[in-house]
Amino acid sequence: MVLTGTHLAWRKGGLHVRPAPLTVKYLPPISTSDWTADKIDDYIKMLHDLYAKHLPESQRPLEL
Fold first, then answer.
1. Spatial contact of 29 and 13, defined as CB atoms under 8 Å apart
2. What total number of domains does the chain contain?
3. What angle (nearest 5°) sits at the alpha carbon of residue 28, between those of residues 24 and 32?
4. Inside any domain, residue 37
5. Distance between CA 46 and CA 32 in Å, rounded?
6. Rounded to whole angstroms, how far apart are CA atoms 38 and 53?
7. Distance between CA atoms of 61 and 22, rounded to whole angstroms?
């Protein structure tokens, strides 16, 4: 699941959530049944990259 628009609703360092349009994009499920602890860093990178790929261009990390 990828959420966009949250930066408008909850500003960094702020204590209040403001009304703002949010978008929720549901991605296909990811099976973790064969995941192993020794590859956790690989899984984290895979999930980060997948999430970033589905963000609007203006909100993607610079290193992608």
1. no
2. 1
3. 120
4. yes
5. 12
6. 25
7. 19
The DSSP bridge pattern shows strands 2-4 and 23-25 to be antiparallel
Model pLDDT for residues 27-56, shown as the tens digit of each residue: 999 999 999 999 999 999 999 999 999 998
| Residue 64 maps to a domain | no
The phi, psi pair for 25, rounded to 5°, reads: -115, 120
The domain containing residue 50 runs over which residues? 2-59
The single-letter DSSP state of residue 61 is -
Give the pLDDT score at 5.
Answer: 87
Among 47, 1, 51, which Cα is nearest to 27's? 1
Alpha carbons within 13 angstroms on the beta-carbon side of residue 17 total 4
